[in-house]
């Protein structure tokens, strides 16, 4: 049965395109595809990278010293690859024929790349089906191709302007084609930059593989340990979200004066949180973040939870898969053998001139910026609770535990620290800055609000300085950034 290509009925496929030679030049094409592949390999501790259509192999030089390189391409491409990396394993092959056997010992320990290759084939279905088979055997498989709509315009019906291309898809067509080829729901798909110079989001990218395709797994108990101080306006929303995500909450109130403590006690009595207590034993005029973090890890050791998450009172956490709860996502990651989880930070902001938002923050605060402070790029705050963990020395950003193996795909941390003018002014000038002084001097922490020390009013952000939030758009347009942080540096 012939596989559908999902191209428009009036699309013209080029049947006589010449063999393309990936000769090195000034531009690096699909740079973040290869950066992502290396990131996945390093975090997962994989020993092989398999590049199908490797060309001259210049982008594989970054893997030197990290992975054994296997490249598959035409004789012309392999001749260049051998000169670029003599130590690689190079296989001459016609990509319209069945791929050479690689062996499960290689594939189970490999990231597979097929970057901007499939559009060169007048009959791409066979290669796509083989890539789908590899995605059922290898942890990670990356496939990329140009987006016809973004590269050529919505009315383009082929043949492609690039004479070496036989055909090009748009985003919807390509995902449907991959699904038809056997990739299933294609867990991650979106756009990435085309070259290191142009940086236009005109390249489609899909990530599949056995480590990114969630399946039902034996349940794990996931507990959130939360320290909070005067966050009563957002605390109900956070607690409701965690309950809906299947997360057991252990709340420690740092002597709030705004009703947070009373709210937490009420939730405890209603059975909506598992534990509620005050910490430290008496009120203090300092924030004592180091002590709170040390308490989090020591308390975690008393729990029967399989996994523990260090969680702030002004955060909404989600798994990287829409519709998959935190509890189910963690169970899947646990079954894969990873024992720690990283997060990508989005700081949501209130906008200057807009009516003040005082509730329903996740719904109504819909402009954000990626967290770009140094601590934001490492947010490893969820871990398997089978050995003592250390969290305090990193300021809560980077949990340390024996034999740590961080799941490469980052979860999402939606942060709502400053929610309207009144709340922001009160939090910065009354609840934070006066209480930060000791740890600022001792640890060089808590400098995020230094710019507000001399201001009497905290104004909102400008629309032009923020990104609009739309979940579907975010998941596809910022795919590489959200799952890895690549492109945010």
Automatic annotation (TrEMBL):
Pfam families per record: Glyco_tranf_2_4, Methyltransf_23
Q: Which domain of life is it from?
A: Bacteria
What SUPFAM superfamilies is this protein classified in?
Nucleotide-diphospho-sugar transferases (SSF53448), S-adenosyl-L-methionine-dependent methyltransferases (SSF53335)
Q: What is this protein called?
A: Methyltransferase domain-containing protein
Q: What phylogenetic lineage does the species belong to?
A: Bacteria, Pseudomonadati, Pseudomonadota, Betaproteobacteria, Burkholderiales
